[in-house]
């Protein structure tokens, strides 16, 4: 197994932090463990040789590195309080007040699609036939191409869907011949999947009613996180919300969002 030297480790930490915001300064073993076989298979003798090839900006190499070094764990209906809040507070409010009948939702750091598909199911279930008179847009983005490919395919294991309400499983999933579950076309059609690095400027013309960025910023350091939260604030509609992971917090005074309850923030 090729060993990572101290200097090489620092190079990886710097590269991932300055390009993708991801803080790997305490993840030496993870870098070595996830990359060493691949570096060896490429016939390279050291991590420095590999880093030099990354620095030549070869898109495929960089994409492979991101796929290896991101943590993509997720499942359907994760941290369900957010979905409850969406159904019981946000959607009734939008129904009463949203004259344009347009709802924009962004799942930022969507991984393999479980979060945005959960959102699409809730929107379909909430609006039922009334959905025809609404313009509902769900954008789902990630930097890892691997997970986005899986998301677009929309096929999941039994374990991943186990928290979904039974009625959702019946209505929105189809069992495949190898005992997996495929998302219905109706739900797939509601989502636009895109590659997007959260370190880049957010240039969307339409602002978002709700941004979900859950279990993504835990991998960022504090300054990167505050920067991103401020960009989200600018991209949120007045009255709109930001949802972060239940293990994450935004310190008081670090953003203009108002904290409504743990992990739920509102732009007033
Ligand atoms: C643990 S998953 C979270 C998935 C889902 N939001 C959830 O809560 O279950 C974190 C995702 O954030 C993505 N990510 C990390 N850094 C990113 C960045 N700079 N830009 C976009 N996505 C990023 C990773 O690729 C990964 O798929």
What are its keywords?
42% helix; binds S-adenosylmethionine; single chain; 268 residues; seven-stranded mixed sheet; 10 strands; three-stranded antiparallel sheet; alpha/beta
Structure overview:
This protein is α/β, with parallel strands linked by helices and 268 residues long. It has ten helices and ten strands. The mean pLDDT is 96. A seven-stranded mixed β-sheet has the order 6-2-1-7-8-10-9. S-adenosylmethionine (SAM) is lined by residues 20-22, 70-74, 78, 109-111, 115, 142-144, 147, 197-199, 214-216, 219, 245. S-adenosylmethionine is lined by residues 20-22, 70-74, 78, 109-111, 115, 142-144, 147, 197-199, 214-216, 219, 245.
Question: SSE layout and pairings?
Answer:
Layout: H1 6-20, H2 28-41, H3 47-55, H4 59-69, H5 81-97, E1 102-108, H6 114-127, E2 135-142, H7 145-153, E3 155-156, H8 166-172, E4 173-175, E5 181-183, H9 185-188, E6 191-195, E7 208-213, H10 222-234, E8 236-244, E9 258-261, E10 264-266
Parallel strand pairs: 1-2, 1-7, 2-6, 7-8
Antiparallel strand pairs: 3-5, 4-5, 8-10, 9-10
The structure holds S-adenosylmethionine.
Estimate the helix proportion, in percent. Answer: 40-55%
Strand content: 15-25%
Order of SSEs, N→C? HHHHHEHEHEHEEHEEHEEE
Oligomer status: single chain
Give a nutshell description of this structure.
By secondary structure, the protein is an alpha/beta fold. It has helices spanning 6-20, 28-41, 47-55, 59-69, 81-97, 114-127, 145-153, 166-172, 185-188, 222-234, and strands spanning 102-108, 135-142, 155-156, 173-175, 181-183, 191-195, 208-213, 236-244, 258-261, 264-266. 34% of the residues are buried.
